[in-house]
Write a structure and sequence with these properties.
0% strand
Length: 110
């Protein structure tokens, strides 16, 4: 129930701030901020409601927080790895295209 109240408050703040923002860039900033906040909120809720977290003792809370930030770091590294793979793929395509263009130029073809 509390989760739906938080979501309702966030959505109402988003709608209110979008109508009061004068410039499109400000609206985009507000939208992205709320989107990131919701993603973090749902990731925290998803992690701490799993069976791996124990919130009954201070030691369990601290280990759960360490586990959450470790999980968050792992997901961040996965995003970086996907980005590196994409950069490598695009770089290889550009390199192949330049090789093809250079071979056509040396052959006198267009």
């Amino acid at each position: 129930m509390i989760l739906w109240i938080i979501i309702g408050i966030v959505v109402s703040i988003l709608i209110t701030s979008l109508f009061h923002a004068e410039h499109l860039l400000n609206r985009i900033k507000v939208f992205l901020f709320v989107l990131v906040a919701l993603i973090v909120l749902f990731s925290i809720i998803g992690f701490f409601t799993s069976n791996s977290s124990n919130l009954n003792s201070p030691k369990g809370i601290i280990s759960s927080v360490y586990g959450y930030f470790g999980w968050l770091g792992e997901k961040g590294l996965q995003l970086v790895t996907v980005g590196q793979g994409t950069i490598n793929t695009v770089g290889n395509i550009i390199k192949d295209n330049q090789t093809t263009v250079q071979s056509k130029i040396s052959d006198g073809r267009k």
